[in-house]
Amino acid sequence: MNKKVIYLAGGCFWGVEAYFRKIKGVLETSAGYANGKTDQTTYHDIGMTGHSETVKISFDQEQVSLSKILEYYFAIIDPTSKNKQGNDVGIQYRTGIYFTNETDKTVIKRFVNSQQKFYKEKIQVEIMPVSNYVTAEEYHQNYLQKNPNGYCHINISKDPEEVIKEKRSKLLGQVRYQVTTLNGTEPPFNNAYSENHEKGIYVDVITGEPLFISTDKFDSGCGWPSFTKPVLKDSLEEKEDKTFGMKRVEVRSKSSNTHLGHVFEDGPKDKGGLRYCMNSASLRFVPEAEMISEGYEDFLKEIK
Fold first, then answer.
1. For the chain, what is the radius of gyration of the CA atoms?
2. Is this prediction's pTM over 0.85?
3. Between the CA of residue 242 and those of 155, 236, 245, what are the distances in Å?
4. Burial class of residue 186 (count of CB atoms within 10 Å of its CB; 0-12, 13-18, 19+)
5. For the packed helices 160-171 and 66-74, what is the interaxial angle rounded to 10 degrees?
6. Along the 304 residues of the chain, how does pLDDT read in single tens digits?
7. Contact by Cβ (8 Å): 201, 213
8. Which among 225, 198, 234, 221 has a CA at the least distance from the CA of 283?
9. Which residues, 6+ apart, have CB-to-CB distance to 170 below 8 Å?
10. Catalytic residue among 206, 277, 278, 283
11. Which of 12, 57, 64, 136 is labelled catalytic?
């Protein structure tokens, strides 16, 4: 087990906690108050102390990534709303992602930058180190389990996987949704990155996690962007694919579990012999000039 903790504010914490308790890989949850002006507060004082209703989430990274946790989170909030979620209004109902280390901060910023591409309005979710966290009173813990008819601005009767699919279908558009979530394939040659020759990095369209670098892209003639290797070995997951009467190796993004494409053994021999044939719809290209502002400065040295 590889345990990690993240703190998420998403409006009334009753529903947020109940929702995350249903997610595979989540180990523990607790309702509390975070990032206020004082080190102590109560439910009746948070409007004055500036704390937000926050859920502390412990999860096993071997079962669910931080990026995936954040996608679950964004699926139940309106990220462009300030100090309001559902019918609840006030600073205590603001949205926030509160982290405990700088590595997590990088993952969070990449994710939010990628999500921003889907919204015209500015995302209002604050990203800050966790501070002044106070566990809420006992009656708030697992509140909706104790009070099944209690108020909730989230429909917790739905499976979280279905919630994600519904949110993706609204944000991604038909082609991207079909490819990333329903394992489809976009048309060859008629896609965004088949003929892209710019320097930069290709990232997961949903989570922003780095997947491929332009240096490793080559013209395979197949009509889809092709790469000799991923930028990070553990960014991908490979699975046997026997659909359509063929035996292939499917490639999925480990951070979001989205379908990327397939890997074949007919790539350049001097580069290892592999061809990662990817769908443009599953990727987002970040040009070299924007890599620092988007949080990918560590990969600039990979571009030749």
1. 21
2. yes
3. 36, 19, 6
4. buried
5. 70
6. 899 999 999 999 999 999 999 999 999 999 999 999 999 999 999 989 999 999 999 999 999 999 999 999 999 999 999 999 999 999 999 999 999 999 999 999 999 999 999 999 999 999 999 999 999 999 999 999 999 888 888 999 999 999 999 999 999 999 999 999 999 999 999 999 999 999 999 999 999 999 999 999 999 999 999 999 999 989 999 999 998 888 999 999 999 999 999 999 999 999 999 999 999 999 999 999 999 999 999 999 999 7
7. yes
8. 225
9. none
10. 277
11. 12
Tell me whether residue 12 is one of the annotated catalytic residues: yes
Of the candidates 1, 25, 282, the residue with the CA atom closest to the CA atom of residue 160: 25
Question: Which domains, and CATH codes, for the chain?
Answer: 3-171 (3.30.1060.10), 175-302 (2.170.150.20)
| Residue at 78: amino acid letter | D
C-beta separation of 34 from 130 below 8 A? yes
Instruction: Please give the structure tokens belonging to residue 69.
Output: 């946790």
DSSP states of 173-239 = -HHHHHHHTT---PPSSSSSSTT---SEEEEETTT--EEEEGGGEE--SSSS-EESS-SSGGGEEEE
Q: What sign does the dihedral 36-37-38-43 (CA atoms) show?
A: negative
What strand order describes the sheet that includes 126-129?
A: 126-129, 95-99, 3-10, 52-60, 26-34, 134-135
- CB contact at 8 A, 25 and 42: no
Q: Do strands 236-241 and 283-287 pair parallel, antiparallel, or not at all (unpaired)?
A: unpaired
**Tally of residues, the chain:** 304
Residue 222 appears among annotated catalytic residues: no
Strands 226-227 and 236-241: unpaired
